UniProtKB/TrEMBL annotation:
Keyword Transmembrane helix: yes
Entry keywords, A to Z: Cell membrane, Membrane, Transmembrane, Transmembrane helix
Main location: membrane
Subcellular location: Cell membrane
Keyword NAD set for record: no
Pfam families: DUF202
Protein name as it appears in the record: Putative membrane protein
């Protein structure tokens, strides 16, 4: 039963605003990953092997793009669930982002190791 302050058929706006803040956090994370990719390309031109920094930079930029797009898709799904008064859909996206970032970190660790051993 809706309260006097809440019109019938409208979800609580706090949920929508919280969902929007979550989307903005995903976008900030994606932007930070892209900025990291640009920084690697600019400031670490020879990371272990000749192609190392380019590979890491491209991986970071693509992970950032995927994070931003995945955040948008999650936001859209949550908005639909909020509007329909259904439970929020499960997130299968977060483990993918964690795995992608972990993979990039492993590659960076290996390339830094190659750089240090090569000196």
């Amino acid at each position: 039963m809706p309260t006097a302050e809440e019109p019938a058929g409208h979800p609580d706006y706090r949920f929508t605003l919280a969902n929007e803040r979550t989307l903005l956090a995903w976008l900030r994370t994606g932007l930070a990953l892209v900025a990291g990719g640009v920084a690697v390309a600019q400031f670490a031109p020879d990371l272990g092997v000749r192609w190392g920094s380019a590979a890491v930079a491209v991986a970071l930029v693509l992970t950032g793009l995927g994070t931003a797009l995945g955040g948008y898709l999650r936001w859209r799904g949550n908005e639909r669930a909020i509007a329909a008064d259904r439970p929020l859909p499960a997130s299968h996206f977060l483990p993918s982002v964690v795995a992608a970032v972990a993979a990039v970190l492993v590659v960076v660790a290996v390339l830094v190791g190659v750089e240090v051993v090569g000196r």
